[in-house]
Amino acid sequence: MEIIHISAECYPVAKAGGLGDVVGALPKYQCKAGHIAKVVMPMYRTKFLYENEWTVDFKGNANLGSWFFDFTIIKESTNKLGFDLFLVDINGLLDRQRIYGYDDDSERFTAFQIAVASWMSSWEHNPDVVHCHDHHTGLLPFMMQYCYDFKKLSSVPTVFTIHNAQYQGWMGWDKSRYIPRWDLWKRGMLDWADSINPLASAIKCATRVTTVSWSYMEELRFHSNGLEKLFEYERGKCIGILNGIDNEVWNPETDKYLTDHYSVKKVTGGKQKNKESLCQQFSLDPEKPLFVFIGRLVGEKAAEILPDAIKTSLYYTQGAACFLVLGSGDPEVEWRFTEMIEPYKGSFNAVIGYDETLSHRMYAGADFLLMPSRVEPCGLNQMYAMRYGTVPVVRSTGGLQDTVVDMGDPEGFGIRFNHASIHDVEYSIGRGIAVYQDTAHMEKMRKWMMQIDHSWESTVDQYTQVYESIQ
Ligand code: ADP
Ligand code: GLC
Fold first, then answer.
1. What DSSP character marks residue 459?
2. Domain residue ranges of the chain, discontinuous segments joined by +
3. What's this model's pTM, rounded to 2 decimal places?
4. 12 Cβ closer than 6 Å to some ligand 1 atom
5. CA distances from residue 199 to 138, 230, 292 in whole angstroms, order as listed
6. Which pLDDT does position 458 carry in this prediction?
7. 2-244+456-469 with 267-450: one CATH topology?
8. Architecture in CATH for domain 267-450
9. Ligand 1 pocket member 354 (CB < 6 A)
10. CA of 354 to the centre of ligand 1 (A)
11. Whether domain 2-244+456-469 has CATH 3.30.70.330
């Protein structure tokens, strides 16, 4: 099958979070399984662009309302990612360093989708499936069906994957002029609560809708930032498919970011070496259990409860554990972590920013990974932690609930709690500190979780079944 993935992120080209990881891996494993999977994304000005070779594949032009723009599609020449990668260049809109966070994001991603639809309409053949990811590509299923200029694509099946339903890409109806001539009777397919809602539109227009864990699929019918009724109504076309992880990138035996590699057999010693170098760099005590947090410092991740939870825990245990935080996001939370570095020296440290290398070293060197997420559609961090023998400490929600078994249950290896509260986090840290003393138990849990198979190889088939069901 020929599968065209359309996304705002793809690792290692441009990544802000898990969406990038998924779109950088799923197509690779689809190609390995015999499909032709391609990725189309905006051409941001990232390091990857300047360090690789490209050929021009297509030049075209289109309108965004009354603004006439040229676009160019370039293709990575060597197929080094394991799939064909296409970047869409639109001067003035996409030629930026960051992926998101600009005032004109609606214009940027609408123009991107128009360029993609124009380009695909020019092909002699139609692909078997167009697979869109998150709201930045949510207008495409509508455009492919109801824009007169893209009529050729109207019979192409579309799959829309929701990685995060919190963000929906809302735009005022004044922006409807951006969408190329469309069947005005279909206004309802764009609308939700009196605005154009790309995420809602995709749920209505895509042939199939998937999300990245089973539990999150269920939760969306009760909590989805205003779309609950829509999920209830469209449940027949929705399916949860748990994400996989790229075992070639995330492998403690070969990880290019680690200096001390280790296997399941050598996990205890291997992790200790990684922990020592990490603790040395961040002035922490390698003899104490090390808890880390890696992620976006936002409300969904409940990052703002961590400073107090960590302080409380250090107070009640008289400093029995160490903590290291890596993340960026809400300036207030960044400031609260930064402010803790000096007074808690020796027990706590934080790096505010994004650092791929450090994140790998932390998965390898930590004993526990904290994820108190309020919302977690899948979560990849806990699966990376498991692969590196690090005990996940998670709130029971979404994909965390689907992947982590509490150590009190048969075959358990993690720590689960119910509330994104200071008390629950502090209590769970206490459970971690207690089990850390039992080295045999720790080793057993590490070995067990490292052998759990979350590979894409075992997940790809589920997407194939979805594609086949809509041919
Ligand atoms: P989300 O996509 O909601 O942020 P996921 O758990 O799916 O959460 O994926 C997060 C991904 O981003 C992981 O690969 C994680 O290691 C990475 N990540 C998040 N924050 C940082 C950071 N500050 N530095 C390096 N990597 C990060
Ligand atoms: C989103 C979700 C995260 C998920 C990722 C990849 O960013 O917040 O839970 O793992 O997408 O699907």
1. T
2. 2-244+456-469, 267-450
3. 0.96
4. no
5. 5, 11, 33
6. 87
7. yes
8. 3-Layer(aba) Sandwich (3.40)
9. yes
10. 9
11. no
